[in-house]
TrEMBL record:
Pfam families from the UniProt entry: PQ-loop
Principal location: membrane
Coiled coil: none
Domain of life of the organism encoding this protein: Eukaryota
Name this protein carries in UniProt: PQLC3 protein
């Protein structure tokens, strides 16, 4: 039963992650606008994803426990480029690329660096969710923010809580997914709330 449950959790996580950012990218492209989306949130999310992926690789965790992260990073990069394009800031793309690539290599120069980065990873990822929440609260408008994308993020956090308990049982990773689950649900609820308010106006 347990191996079958683990397989279902892993496969469903990969399937959801393969299309997670598609609704968000589609919304931005359709509107040709990044209104309601926080660049800071996306930068922090990307940083959190890169640290988490590097940590899992460094400690040799099973591939199936983090296979979705390269997919998510690729989708975030595409979304990020569209946001920069529609906000007229494409010149910043090169600077961000240098920072992220340099950071990726620096993470494993020493064991203490990757361990410290992973401990900060939860704070970084939580900050990305709060940056998006702040953007929503300030504008009181969900804009092009996709509730479907955020709800899929919540689902993958829930499945990763399960797979972490069944495989590595890494407490740092587990705490990260629990916090991310709560925050993803919060962002989803906020987007839906502002969308509902807009319809009733």
């Amino acid at each position: 039963m347990a191996p079958a449950l683990l397989d279902v959790a892993n496969w469903s996580t990969w399937a959801v992650c393969a299309v997670m950012k598609v609704p968000q990218v589609a919304a931005v492209l359709a509107a040709r606008s990044a209104r309601g989306l926080s660049v800071g949130s996306l930068v922090l999310e990307l940083a959190g994803f890169l640290v988490f992926l590097k940590y899992q690789i460094y400690y040799g965790y099973p591939l199936q426990t983090y296979l979705e992260y390269p997919i998510l990073i690729a989708q975030d990069v595409i979304l990020f480029l569209f946001i920069l394009h529609f906000s007229g800031n494409m010149k910043q793309a090169l600077l961000y690329t240098v920072i992220f690539v340099g950071g990726w290599y620096m993470l494993t120069l020493q064991k203490w660096i990757i361990d410290l980065a992973m401990n900060l990873c939860t704070l970084i990822s939580a900050a990305s969710k709060f940056a998006q929440l702040r953007c929503l609260w300030q504008t009181k408008d969900s804009g092009q923010a996709s509730a479907l994308t955020w709800s899929m993020s919540a689902y993958t956090c829930a499945t990763r809580i399960l797979t972490t308990l069944m495989t590595t049982n890494d407490l740092i990773v587990l705490i990260r997914f629990i916090i991310m689950l709560i925050l993803n649900i919060w962002v989803t609820a906020t987007i839906l709330n502002y969308r509902k308010m807009k319809k009733t106006d």
